What does this fold into?
Amino acid sequence: MTRSIGLACALVLATGAWVLVYQMLADPVPEPTIELHRQSEGPPPKLELVGEKFHEFGTLPAFTKGSHTWEFKNTGEGPMDIWLAETSCSCTVATLKSPEGEPKKTVTVPPGQSTPIEVSWEAKRWGRFGQSATLGTSDPENPSVTLTVLGMILAPVEVQPSEFINLAEISPEEPHRASVKIVSPDRPDLKLTKVATSRPGVIVAEARPMTPAELEKLKVKSGYNVTVEVKPGMSPGRFTEDILIETDHPHRPSLKVTVTGRSVGPISVIPERLRMPSVASQAGASQDLTLLIRGGRDTRFEVVSKPEKLRVAIAREDRPEAKGKYRLTVTVPPGMSPGLVNDPIVLKTDYPKIGEVRIPVMIYVSSRSEAG
It folds into this structure.
């Protein structure tokens, strides 16, 4: 009985395999969906490209269109077919036309004649631009030709010299200034509708229209000088703040200028930031930082802001040789919910011209199993 069942199963499998093979052989081979271009009989054509394969257009404002026309000449004895094979992106188009000027998928160029090939593009992003179009031909020696356009696309609103201001090291006891220029290559009547900062109490920014001499020097029709001032009182340590600018340009209504640096002054935090990469939620943990006061001056500190549920305590070192030294203890209490803590600790101080001390915090509280 078992042997009969086995033979029956084998027969079914064999029959299924033969049916599959028959179906594969019986199905017709699908026709190609692409247009085929075969070499014609008789004398061959010969392609001569008038000009270079690369076209440098220089600079263009963003969201504008450009075009360049090449000439394909047939110097052979037979007719030459030309067709578009591919383009590097949808923003680049190659146009082929009949002698009457009508768009065609394939054009035929008789011996001794030529046809224009126009490549057009649209600049949708700014920065270095490079796109291409590849055309196929019936010239057996030149079955394809790639035409490339290159250039620089200018931002709708540009920050010069850069969207980053690096102040390096500054003193928190005196002001520091820097400036950038805001221009638009395609909007001579550009308006800045708002200029604000991420720390308005410490960093201020003001914009004023450029003078005719400044505009002439930059070869623009309108623009603004934006002056950035870091006032006394910047928190000790490294900082990264933003200047937020709104414009009336439809393609770039807002932009950001980043201001970075390091404030080195009478109060130092060691280390500059608090990092606790893995704290078990059930156990909790604590870590000490040191506050050093230049000249050993007695200073009062008040915790005005901190991550929720963290405990922060500040105590002065009592040893005579540690004058001007304070210990800041940060405690993660047991039972704190797992997750990432990255809000700063902000201390208010009575030290002259030092309004506050900000200490970046990065604590990852994990479950017991994760902390291992």
User: Anything to note?
Assistant: The mean pLDDT is 85. The helical segments are 2-26, 212-218, 368-371. The two ends are 59 Å apart (CA to CA).
